[in-house]
Amino acid sequence: MKRVLIWVLSLWSIVGIGWSRSEDGLQELKAKDRLLSFLEKDAVSPGANSLMIPLTLIQGAASKGAVCLDGTPPGYHLDRGFGSGSNSWLIQLEGGGWCNTVRSCVFRKTTRRGSSKFMEKRLNFTGILSNKAEENPDFYNWNRVKLRYCDGASFAGEGQNEANQLYFRGQRIWSAAMEELMAKGMQNAEQALLSGCSAGGLASILHCDEFKDMFPSTTKVKCLSDAGVFLDATNVAGGHTLRDMYRGVVTLQGVQKNLPNTCTSQMDPTSCFFPQNLIANIQTPLFLLNAAYDAWQVQESLIPSSADPHSFWRDCKMDHSHCNSSQMLFLQDFRNQMLSGINGFSMSNQNGLFINSCFAHCQSERQDTWYANDSPRIGNKAIAASVGDWFFDRTATKAIDCPYPCDNTCHNLIFK
Questions:
Q1: Which CATH number characterizes residue 385's domain?
Q2: Which of 97, 108, 298, 369 could form an SS bridge with 363, CB 3.0 to 4.6 Å?
Q3: Listed GO molecular functions (predicted)?
């Protein structure tokens, strides 16, 4: 049965999508932050028996310059593995958009996305982070880590802005966190999976080979990117919203220093922040989990309010069932672009795919979409089973859904 998730957003929080320099700019930044929060929200609120894992700050990080945007130490949540999973490690990189201007990064410092001062002291571990076999059959007893995201450049920046007291140290945060986790036992891992959602999904692509190189060749290492296939797509007005944003991120935060030279030797740095230009050169086995009609990209990249001043697309953007035939053709073209962008990647036997035709975003951390009785399926196989089959080499997994509206297992996001 089709499951629809409805987020109730006030009108101002949907309209304020562009990075405005007007007096309303602060409200627009708050609106973007709220949209991210809604997209990341767990489907099930923490209950009495929820697994709540405390935040650990990396105390030695500051001396290495590995700090959040505001200079506070970065942090992570670790739940130790047990039994057969004691020597297996799962690292989940938190997502949460990017900041591409001084103004947006200064705002970000006042939130959990830019400062550990505002991070939750305990996080609910669900989905791929759950410690229950019935919720997470293949990874429940592994050492599971959620690395918090507080740099605004997918753990890839290197620089600072002294005038505004901004620290762009994403790469150093990544390195400091990995060093600490290796010292806590990850160096002895028999198996390791680097995962991430949204901006964290992009980070898992950027750092995949680097992660693999940390371990001896005897360790089984793979990577999973959830909702990380951000496309260099044209918006409804013919502009390139995401390319413009990424150019700001890469330039402001010094990301070009940390992009793979297999890409930068052939393309400009901004192009090398797009996964479609990276995935073919990744040597480590990689799994792409993505909704073909990614809800964040529909909202922020394809139909930003700046590209739709007369609100022709507003009803379609908020509820895909309200799209007319020409609008749906535009969204189908976006799906085609995604499939084209991953075509070369999919040819490799070591890689995996689960591209479902849903209006969703981040499906590995949510219990209802990762593994539940009514979770999304392709060919009657849930996401968790597909990822597990691929990681353990039980069977090849190259699952691509037929186009909307053929899939009745989606947990589509509707904005009201």
A1: 3.40.50.1820
A2: 369
A3: pectin acetylesterase activity
